[in-house]
Specification:
This protein is an alpha/beta fold. The chain folds into three domains: about 180 residues, Rossmann fold, CATH 3.40.50.1100; about 110 residues, Rossmann fold (3-Layer(aba) Sandwich), CATH 3.40.50; about 130 residues, CBS-domain. It is about 30% helix and about 15% strand. The strands form four sheets. The chain has a six-stranded mixed beta sheet. Strands 5-4-3-6 form a four-stranded parallel beta sheet, with helices on both faces. Helix 2 links the parallel strand 3 and strand 4. The protein is globular and about 70 Å long. The structure holds pyridoxal-5'-phosphate (PLP). The site of pyridoxal-5'-phosphate has 19 residues, from helix 2 and helix 6. The site of pyridoxal-5'-phosphate (PLP) has 19 residues, from helix 2 and helix 6. This is Cystathionine beta-synthase. Pfam families: PALP. InterPro entries: Cys_Synth/Cystath_Beta-Synth, P-phosphate_BS, TrpB-like_PALP, TrpB-like_PALP_sf.
Length: about 450
């Protein structure tokens, strides 16, 4: 075993592990690179340490300083770990949408975790990014890591991830399949591998279906870390400069359900407990591998471990609540999905007269519910619940001059597989008469009226 003089020296140097059972029947070799073997538990330790060291060397971060980042978790964890070891204060701005395990880990390293939940575009003063930037401007000695636009992020992977993969495959790698969040991992690793192989290594971006990187509508997804979300009120879709999309030969798109099923299956058939974005990457790698012969060697970095998501992707209640589990109740009871009603969708910014005509032509009754959504160009799949602004009816629309004037609030989200009766459904029915959103695979596929949720109906 090697000997290290500090925890920070253990960042990097992760192995390659061949998929055997999960890749049975496929001709190429598929190797995964378990980045959770980094000390903070994710691939982002590499970027965090690289950005922090560069800030120190450039004088942007000095002894007694404060390390600040806005993050979906893992970069903050890497920074918090390094800051703890090096004696810096760490202040991490993140959203409560990240898993409980990641928030707890940040706090365990002594970082101050500031939760910002406002659903606003990046440029808005209440956005995560604005909070971080304001805090840095107001705090002497504070440095914002800014992983999305920090060249030290991809540089970490050019210096370590790429060379490790090349050396551990003895130069045999033919395909790199990786997710794209900030783009640091794929850009730095791909640049190295393309250079060293004279362009031979093919680079495939594994992207959540709705991510705008691969042409999705930019709406939210349930997989943390991978892909690019665009707030519906953003006028611009600015991609991070950490991403060099010219290095990506093509994308493979994977939806949340398949990503989650892939990590459950990896855990159960291969004994590899990986996080959600790893599910996107492995599912994409299997699709790539299907078209390759025995000379193929596919390498897939797995950004973090399933242990970060035991309360989400591996938790039956979470899976059921978000429509990722059970389409038939084992007891034979009816389910929320069976009682759901399909629902017409209306853009919040549509002309009210156009909406009324459309709904009338569609045979919608005056009191039937329609869901009002943020406008989103190129919507290609059922909406994510965060794109739902509220509900309305034809009768309300007829009496209003804009769609926004006709809005009513909606009740909770209920997973399609929830059996009836269920405590969460009973609580909602007892609390009023709002319609509930029915989620299947994390998308809103219908609504449920309180009276339809009566199990004895
Ligand atoms: C879980 C997870 N997966 C994937 C990624 C994407 O990595 P990168 O930012 O290097 O593109 C991240 C990064 O934030 C992550 O936390």
């Amino acid at each position: 075993m090697a000997r290290y003089e500090s925890i920070l020296e253990t960042v990097g140097g992760t192995p390659l592990i061949r998929l055997t059972r999960a890749a049975a029947g496929l001709q190429p070799r598929i190797y995964v690179k378990p980045e959770w073997q980094n000390p903070g538990g994710s691939v982002k330790d590499r970027a965090a340490l690289s950005m922090l060291r560069r800030a120190e060397s450039e004088g942007a971060l000095r002894p007694g300083g404060t390390v600040v980042e806005v993050t979906s978790g893992n970069t903050g964890i890497g920074l918090a770990m390094a800051a703890a070891h090096l004696g810096y204060r760490a202040v991490i701005f993140t959203s409560s949408a990240i898993s409980r395990e990641k928030r707890s880990q940040l706090a365990a390293y002594g970082a101050e975790v500031r939760l910002v939940d406002n659903f606003v575009p990046k440029a808005h003063p209440d956005s995560l990014r604005s909070h971080g930037e304001r805090f840095v401007a107001e705090t002497p000695g504070a440095w914002l890591a800014a992983q999305y636009d920090n060249p030290a992020n991809p540089a970490a992977h050019y210096a370590s991830t790429g060379p490790e993969i090349w050396s551990d495959t003895d130069g045999d790698i033919t395909h790199l399949v990786a997710t794209v969040g900030t783009g640091g991992t794929i850009s730095g690793t791909a640049r190295y591998l393309k250079e060293v192989s004279d362009g031979r290594v093919q680079v495939i971006g594994a992207d959540p279906t709705t991510s705008s990187y691969a042409g999705g509508d930019g709406s939210q997804k349930f997989i943390e870390g991978a892909g690019h979300f665009v707030h519906p009120e953003s006028n611009v879709d600015d991609w991070p400069t950490s991403l060099d999309s010219g290095l990506i030969d093509r994308f493979v798109r994977i939806d949340d359900r398949r990503a989650i099923e892939t990590i459950q299956w990896l855990a159960r058939t291969e004994g590899i407990l990986a996080g959600g974005s790893s599910g996107v990457a492995v599912a994409a790698a299997l699709d790539v591998a299907r078209d390759l012969g025995p000379d193929g060697t596919v390498v897939v970095p797995l950004p973090d471990s399933g242990r970060q998501y035991l309360s989400t992707y591996f938790d039956d209640d979470w899976l059921t609540a978000n429509g990722f589990a059970g389409s038939a109740a084992p007891t034979g009871d009816p389910t929320v999905g069976e009682r759901a009603t399909p629902v017409p969708l209306v853009d919040r910014d549509e002309q009210v007269t156009d909406v009324v005509t459309r709904l009338e032509n569609g045979g919608i009754g005056p009191d039937d519910v329609a869901l009002v959504l943020y406008r989103r160009a190129g919507r290609s799949v059922a909406p994510h619940p965060t794109d739902v602004v509220g509900a309305t009816t034809l009768a309300r629309l007829r009496a209003s001059s804009t769609v926004a004037d006709a809005l009513q609030s909606v009740g909770p989200r209920l997973g399609a597989g929830l059996p009836l009766p269920h405590p969460s459904v009973t609580r909602w029915r007892d609390s009023g008469d709002k319609i509930a959103l029915v989620l299947d695979g994390g998308r809103v596929t219908g609504i449920l009226h309180p009276e339809s949720a009566d199990p004895d109906r």
